[in-house]
Specification:
Length: 122
């Protein structure tokens, strides 16, 4: 399994919703939210996607929103980049590259990308 992080910026003048992501490197990618309750961290998929208000930036980051990559088609190597296609309600599809990094707090590999992605309004 892998976890993806990124920063999404809505440069348009109306709200958009990040609805889905996919990569040829994993059989399934879902948008998750981490929730802390009674000191225990759990996560759940966002059923209706992730809303990004006009002009705002939403960060996918540890202990927050993230992409969950399941059924990886082979191991991820540190330093490699994997393509990811992001679908939106209200904005065009975006193609991004995620760089694979290993994080200290969890065994295994995660993908991390810190970048800005603008979305025009149509
Ligand atoms: Cu998750």
């Amino acid at each position: 399994m892998g976890v993806g992080y990124m920063t999404l910026t809505n440069t348009g003048d109306r709200e958009i919703t990040f609805t889905a992501a996919e990569t040829p490197r994993a059989a399934s990618v879902s948008i998750h939210q981490s929730i802390m309750s009674d000191g225990v961290m759990s996560m759940q998929p966002l059923k209706n996607g992730l809303a990004i208000p006009a002009g705002e930036t939403v960060e996918l980051k540890p202990h927050g929103y993230h992409l969950m990559l399941e059924k990886l088609k082979g191991p991820l190597k540190e330093g490699e980049t994997i393509p990811m296609t992001l679908s939106f309600d209200g904005a065009d599809t975006q193609r991004v590259e995620l760089t694979v990094e290993s994080l200290d707090d969890i065994a295994g590999k995660r993908q991390e990308k810190k970048a800005m992605h603008g979305h025009g309004h149509h």
